[in-house]
Amino acid sequence: MDQETAYRIVPADSDRIDEIKSFVLTVMSDLYPQGTYYEDPHDLAFFDEVYIQPSNALFLITTDASGQIIGTAAVRPYDRRFPEVEAAFGREPVCEIVKFYIHSDHRKKGIGSRLYAIAEHFAREAGYKMSYLHTSTFLPGGYPFWKSRGYVEYYWESETVVHMSKNFQ
């Protein structure tokens, strides 16, 4: 690969939490209207407890040739905080895909596809039977990306927020 397209996807460790927080919050502030996202997300504040210690959770970072973070994705147990989608899951182990962001300069280069493939492989190996996520239609490429990965709409929370799931069985 040339310098322009070289990237690496690796599991994150707590040594890079400050960089991860900075990347995620910068991308979120670029994508979401002020006041519609948490500026100190619980999962990043308790990074080790949420992503490092549990064997059924994973936080991935994508870095460019210089080691700068250009993408993130995470898999964690779904906490069942949305009662509107509970009927879709039953008692099956369900993961949630979160913090799936690619820097705007690196979108449409296949990074998201590769990042998701690794995340889904991990989820299946960890024993999850279903995957859940919610996305906003105003996110660049988000909704069509998830549809192309086999996610189906389950519940429209608003005109722009959709809850989706994918059955791994």
Approximately what portion of the residues adopt beta-strand conformation?
25-35%
Q: Roughly how many Å apart are the termini?
A: 35 Å
* Shape annotation: globular
User: How would you spell out the order of helices and strands?
Assistant: EHHHEEEHEHEE
> Could you give the order of strands across the largest sheet?
1-2-3-4-5-7-6
User: Number of DSSP strands?
Assistant: 7
CATH architecture: 3-Layer(aba) Sandwich
Which ranges are low-confidence, i.e. pLDDT below 50, for 5 or more consecutive residues? none
Mean pLDDT: 91
Radius of gyration: 15 Å
- Helix percent reads 25-40%
CATH superfamily: Gcn5-related N-acetyltransferase (GNAT)
Keywords: Acyltransferase, Transferase
Domain N-acetyltransferase: 18-169
Protein name: N-acetyltransferase domain-containing protein
GO molecular function: acyltransferase activity, transferring groups other than amino-acyl groups
Structure description:
One of its GO terms (molecular function) is acyltransferase activity, transferring groups other than amino-acyl groups. This protein is of the alpha+beta class. The chain has a single domain, classed as 3-Layer(aba) Sandwich (Aminopeptidase), CATH 3.40.630.30. It has five helices and seven strands. It has a seven-stranded mixed β-sheet, sandwiched between helices. The longest helix has 15 residues, at 17-31. The chain starts with 6 loop residues before the first strand and ends with a strand.
